[in-house]
Amino acid sequence: MTREKTAGNATGPERARGLFATFPYSHPQGRLRERVKELHCLYRVLEVTSDKEADVEEVGARVIELLMGAFLYENRTVVRIRLGDKDLRSDNWKSPDLAMEEPICCEREEIGSLVIGYVDHQGAESDFLPEEHDLVAAVAANLGKMAEDRLLLERVRQAERSRASAEITGVFAHDFNNLLTVIMGSAENLLDDIREGDPAREQVQMIGEAAVRGSAIVAQLLAHIRSRPLPRQAVQTAAMLHDMGRILASAVGKAITVELQIAPDVWPICVDRTQLENALLNLAINARDAMPAGGRLCISATNVRAERDQDNLPDTAMAGDRIRIEVSDTGSGMTDDIAARAFEPFFSAKPHGTGLGLSSVAGFVHQSGGTIELSSEPNHGTTFLISLPRAQTS
């Protein structure tokens, strides 16, 4: 059973159609009708694309439905949305006589397009209304923003999964090292009680040597993971930090304000971009854990020019121009004892921490030819100062 909408519960576009249906677009009332339809469509598209629980196909179908009623010739309108591997079309889709296409971009790369067309349109207007061009551009931009938001959310989830994997690995490695330490200590004690020439002495020595070799293998494995060569490239510092701003905001939650203070002339950095992004995400998550009631996370980037008038200046990355990235929070801070050990592998002040997060950040910075320092006071937050080499550009 269908139910007709009354004037009291009709939507804005329906009321506009009812009041101004007979007016052509050339009449002010006709233009008002079309503007109401377009604004209502854009508002509803913003609402639909904000639904993170709906899958892409469901969102696309709802956007298509909204666009079908937003143009001057509603009964001739066809819509097509290409988004990644999805190709969504209105039920009445066929090759249009008149069409406009707007690219859908995610992180500055084209990932699809939005096509609006009229069918059976021969002999009518040769172009869409100016407002309709604006509407299509706005909807395409919003679909791109939706794709970016979902990509950022997936990155945060992946980072959390990586942290969980690191925690499990760290627990096993820590426990295994504890077992080896017990074995080595017990072997040394037994050797003290066994006389020279006793056949058992050689067996105990073999046990102790095997435990030492096992401990060395674990240390070498962790060192290899932390120190393998990283592919470096010139990374535009300002663009990278602006891109990371939304990722970090999603990672820390709404209770924490993320501020970016980037010098307008900041130089590019010579690093592995993915590793730098992961390092910043790691520091942001640590800051989040230190601010359970909310607070402020500030990230700044400035240039530090090398003093070139020194005699015998070493020709190394450490002696050249640098970019300083400062990450500070208003969290609970650290005592001097904890701060002194913060970068040690397997050291953590958290009840369930593994001590691998800051250790991996420090490892990345050192591999990139940089330095990292921290300053902290209990109840006054923590600041990390990262210095990285400037990329050589032509």
Q: At the third CATH level, what is the topology name of the largest domain?
A: Heat Shock Protein 90
Query: What is the assembly state of the chains in this entry?
Result: single chain
What is the level-2 CATH architecture name of the largest domain? Answer: 2-Layer Sandwich
Alpha plus pi helix count: 9
The CATH class of the largest domain: Alpha Beta
Sheet having the most strands? 5 strands, mixed
Please list the strands of the largest sheet in the order they lie side by side.
6-8-9-11-10
Rg from alpha-carbon coordinates? 31 Å
Query: What is the straight-line distance between the termini?
Result: 71 Å
Which band does the percent of strand residues land in? 15-25%
Poorly predicted runs are 1-8, 313-318
Could you state the order of secondary-structure elements as H and E?
HHHEEEEHHEHEEHEEHHEE
Helix content: 40-55%
Q: What structural class is derived from the secondary structure elements?
A: alpha+beta
Describe this structure as you would to a colleague:
The structure is a single chain. The chain has 394 residues and is α+β, with helices and mostly antiparallel strands. The chain folds into 3 domains: 12-152, Beta-Lactamase; 159-227; 233-306 and 317-389, Histidine kinase-like ATPase, C-terminal domain (Heat Shock Protein 90, 2-Layer Sandwich). It contains 9 helices and 11 strands. It has a 5-stranded mixed beta sheet with strand order 6-8-9-11-10, covered by helices on one side. Helix 4 (130-193) packs antiparallel against helix 5, helix 4 (130-193) crosses helix 6 and helix 7 packs antiparallel against helix 9 (357-367). The radius of gyration is 31 Å and the shape is elongated. The protein starts with 11 loop residues before the first helix and ends in a 5-residue tail after the last strand.
